[in-house]
Amino acid sequence: MSDHKINPNNWIDLYSDYLFNYSISRVNDHAIAQDLISETFLAGLKSMKNFKGEASERTWLISILKRKIIDHYRKKNSKKGKAEVRMAYNSSENEGDWLEERVADPFDKTAEDNIENTELGFAINNCLEKLPEKQAKVFEMKTILNYETETICNELDITASNLWVIIHRARTAMAGCLEKNWF
Amino acid sequence: MMMNKIMMDCEKAHTVCDKSQYKEATVWEKIKLKFHLIFCKICKKYTANNTKLTKLIKSNSVFTPLPKDAKEKIKSNFKKELAKLND
Predict the structure, then answer these.
(1) pLDDT tens figures, A66-97
(2) ipTM of this complex prediction, to 2 decimal places
(3) Residue B58 belongs to what domain range?
(4) Contact criterion met (CB < 8 Å) for A168 and B14
């Protein structure tokens, strides 16, 4: 089975949004996520001859991105222990303030919301990853990027009724998958 | 006569339900869907799940498309490498 072709010319248009969201739900930093996917595309280009066509381009690129994310955390971890925390509480002005400063702010509820949101993004990405490539692409363009039906039809060269069938299958699968993992 | 006009099958109901998630269903389609849902449990379940999915994705602000300028930057970098490869 080697019916998957590789064509780097369209990579960025087709996969950059998907890879970006995939990495952002894992590294939680826009700039790092952008660097990671940029590296992923370049690495993919360099190892194109290793592409056997067993998996789709998207799956293949994701597997490269996964390595990049692991490398990123490895690098980050290797810096551990070198950091030094300095705190000076010897000025008479601040004396005795340190305890109060360390108490969690009860009004800061956004942290928890953010965690939940990140996890949801993670769950959505995971489910999206399980969909067949075309369904994932159409669903993403329509639901997450909010493209017009006509734009998607033109770009992917499908009819409107075609699009709704794909959307229907994708939505059913997504709802089922999220029901298992999130609802 | 009137009944025939307002009835629709499950397949059509699903499509209308999907369309209405993107606010692309017509008023008449929505009326027909509501009517269908009165007696069709399966479609009712599907509609409930579908609405839930829409809400869930809307509530997720983390899911953002790659900013245009960043995309262009990545693209121009990539094109340079691609050109080198083709030389």
Answers:
(1) 999 999 888 887 776 665 555 555 555 555 55
(2) 0.70
(3) 2-86
(4) yes
